[in-house]
Amino acid sequence: AGWKMLGDPFIFASIRVLGAWMAEETSSLKQEICDLLPFFLHYAKLQFEAGKKGGSSLQNTGCSGGQEPVWHGDALRFMLPGLSHLTTEDRPRAILISEGAPVLLCQYFLHQWEVFVSDLEAPFALDAVESTLQTACAMFLNFVVAVPELISREDCFTALMDMLLKSLPSLQPQGEHLGLVAGITTLGLMMARKLSAHPGLQRTPEAKEFFSTTITFLAGAHVAQLDPVGDSMILSLAPAYKAAWPTISELWLLGMQAFASCMPLFLWLPEVVLQSVWPQDLLKLLSCVAPASVDLELVTAFQGILVELAKTSPPSREVIQQHRGAELANLYGMAALEQGLSQQ
Fold first, then answer.
1. What is the pTM of this model?
2. How many helices and strands (H and E) does the chain possess?
3. Considering the chain, what percentage of its residues have pLDDT values greater than 70?
4. Cα 74 vs. chain centroid, distance in angstroms?
5. Rounded to the nearest 5°, which phi and psi values hold at 32?
6. What local confidence, expressed as pLDDT, does residue 20 receive?
């Protein structure tokens, strides 16, 4: 009788309210929340599976006046922001893993992506789905960073990796879905480091297209522009990135680090990078702007890409040298790049 009550709309409404509270009160009643996590996940799984059987479309459950519709199997959506905070902490994260949260989250992410790319004539509904996908990306990233061995241990992550390889190129890497692009880019690169032996990443067309799309996103973030208070050129954010930058800047930096660390793992990747002319454009950019306009964090990120290219690919090393690489390394204080280029 107790489990039958889980279909009661009051339970769903309570979960929705509690999920909103958890998203705001990230440090309150930790023990009580940990005690409830197994129930939350069991309820979310039952609702998700029942909702899929009953139809995966978003439905308007009695709402009117243009209010946002709610899919009746989407209890997990209201829990995600609060659960995302919990994945940053050891004990709650361990409970979530032991209760099967990664598997459920992978299934949910794949389902939500299908909803997102389907032809729904409800922009406000798609906005909600996009926000959910971004939150799920953040949760996966917390798992990848804190428990990296989980990625190669759980089979669901290989299915997720395959989905990310195919899905990212379908988004405009500098378009209106920049927040989602940043999340999928960084998550995909971080996971690729742990799944480097996965067949889907072995120079397949999907893998090459995925990495090419990540390059477009990472390389397009900065441009040269005339200093409004002087006559010199300075480094600036590209116009398409400015609105989203406060929320994606950390993802961009993490993505740069992850991309650099992928190059020694995928020996075919430097060739893709060279074909994209990213290193050539980056060195030209650094040549024409005032060094003082490039902060240390960006210098470190740019150096990471150039150093790995020079280490793993003789043709890339030659291209870097031909584009004043050693001179620019000295100018910008890129000691690791300067040293790498000086070694034969």
1. 0.89
2. 18, 2
3. 88
4. 22
5. -65, -40
6. 79
